[in-house]
Automatic annotation (TrEMBL):
A Pfam family assignment: MS_channel_2nd
Name listed for the protein in its UniProt record: Miniconductance mechanosensitive channel
PANTHER family named among the record's database cross-references: MINICONDUCTANCE MECHANOSENSITIVE CHANNEL YBDG
A GO BP annotation: cellular response to osmotic stress
The organism of origin for this protein: Flavobacterium xanthum
Cellular location(s): Membrane
Length: 418
């Protein structure tokens, strides 16, 4: 193969010399034409191998049951390998084309060699990405920190790659280079500690897509609660909602805990999760007369009719003694109020009915029984979200009295004034 390449690119110079051109002119003219030929041949090789490799991999991915080859196609591994083949052709051709230009031969040889090293690392990265995605499909590995393992391996490979690049660029023996790097690493780490930590964190933040400019984040340790306006090597700037600015060290994003609200903003709704405390002493069974009166409430009138029939049939079938309300099945004012709130939420226009929506009773406390609303509003803007939540709880608080319930309030000295 090498002999054929040599014949192609050494053909023009003797031809030009036979035509009577000078040595220098023939050299430069043959160089220009050889570069054009090299570019055309490299492009043709790239097109052919890209078509062949991508097609073969796509066909294999369709015919095999495993998902790994499909993920290789998704991560464009074949496309990057197709880039590597013409580069190897160029790397072999450069010494022949630039045989009479020693300086440029060394320069371009190093340049192409460095590009090959970077491309090989990139191909390995796409394979690891495909492997990561494949393992995440397996329940056995779904909770394992696969990303961390791959990042550590890639860091080691990049260190090796950078060592090879420096060795090739400055023509230093790799063993000597590693010895020199080991000797100065302690001093470098001491002087540039914050910069190195910031750089590593910036890479982690970027690769893992932890934070983007414009994200709303909350980080209590630094008093940050607002939008990210700048991310650089050393710091991340956050404009808080009170228009102050908080500066966070970049490495804190990977070492400390923070809350990113991007998922909420990109979702179909913003969560409403708030409760009221019902005084325990006000919870009781409902009597027949009260049930008839509560049927006037439109949202629960049909529910009351169906529920009353169901309860009466059960009590009758089981010959329940209803002289005591505790016997058999009954309706409570709290249970009916909970049903009313649920129906109210289902009929409230600003809530997303496709997301989780419920009114639930939480664990009783010394302050009463918490009754919590859990729902999602369509509108995620702060002011509109707060209005929707306030409007819902205005209605809930005002409705409590209709069910003969009371909301817990801490007694103050004003309650004892006559």
């Amino acid at each position: 193969m090498y002999k054929y390449i040599e014949k192609i690119f050494t053909f023009l110079y003797p031809v030009f010399r036979k035509w009577g051109l000078g040595s220098s002119t023939a050299s430069y003219l043959s160089l220009v034409l050889n570069i054009l030929v090299l570019c055309v041949m490299a492009y043709v090789i790239y097109v052919i191998f890209r078509l062949v490799l991508v097609t073969i991999m796509a066909v294999i991915a369709q015919k095999t049951k495993t998902k790994f080859d499909d993920l290789l196609v998704t991560n464009k591994t074949a496309k990057y390998i197709a880039h590597l083949i013409p580069l190897l052709f160029i790397y072999k051709s450069v010494p022949i084309i630039l045989d009479r230009f020693v300086y440029w031969e060394t320069f371009f040889g190093k340049l192409v060699g460095i590009y090959i090293i970077i491309l090989v690392l990139w191909i390995i990265r796409t394979i690891f990405n495909a492997l990561r995605d494949y393992l995440k499909l397996k329940p056995r590995y779904s909770d394992k920190p696969i990303d961390s393992f791959i990042q550590v391996i890639m860091i080691m490979l990049w260190v090796i790659g950078i060592t090879l690049i420096i060795s090739k660029l400055f023509e230093i023996d790799q063993k000597e280079l590693l010895t020199i790097l080991g000797a100065v690493s302690a001093v470098i780490i001491l002087i540039f500690r914050d910069t190195i930590l910031g750089f590593v964190s910036s890479v982690q933040v970027s690769i893992n897509d932890m934070v983007r400019i414009g994200d709303w984040i909350t980080m209590d340790k630094f008093g940050a609660d607002g939008d990210v306006i700048e991310i650089n090597l050393a710091t991340v700037k956050v404009r808080n909602f009170d228009n102050t600015t908080t500066t966070i060290p970049t490495y804190s994003l990977s070492s400390d805990s923070f809350q990113n609200w991007r998922g909420m903003l990109n979702s179909d709704g913003r969560r409403i999760k708030r409760h009221i405390l019902i005084k325990t002493s006000s919870i009781r069974f409902l009597e027949e007369a009260e049930l008839d009166n509560l049927k006037k409430i439109h949202l629960i009138s049909d529910y009351l009719d169906n529920r009353k029939v169901e309860i009466d049939e059960y009590n009758s079938a089981n010959k329940i003694d209803k002289s005591l309300a505790i016997n058999g099945r009954n309706m409570t004012n709290l249970g009916l109020f909970r049903k009313y709130i649920t129906e109210y939420l289902l009929n409230y226009p600003e809530l997303n009915k496709d997301m989780l929506m419920l009114c639930r009773q939480l664990q009783s406390t010394s302050h009463g029984v918490p009754l919590e609303v859990y729902a999602f509003s369509h509108d995620k803007r702060f002011e509109n979200y707060e209005y929707i939540m306030s409007d819902i709880f205005d209605h809930i608080i005002a409705s409590v009295g209709y069910f003969d319930l009371e909301i817990f309030e801490t007694i103050s000295e004003n309650d004892f004034k006559i």
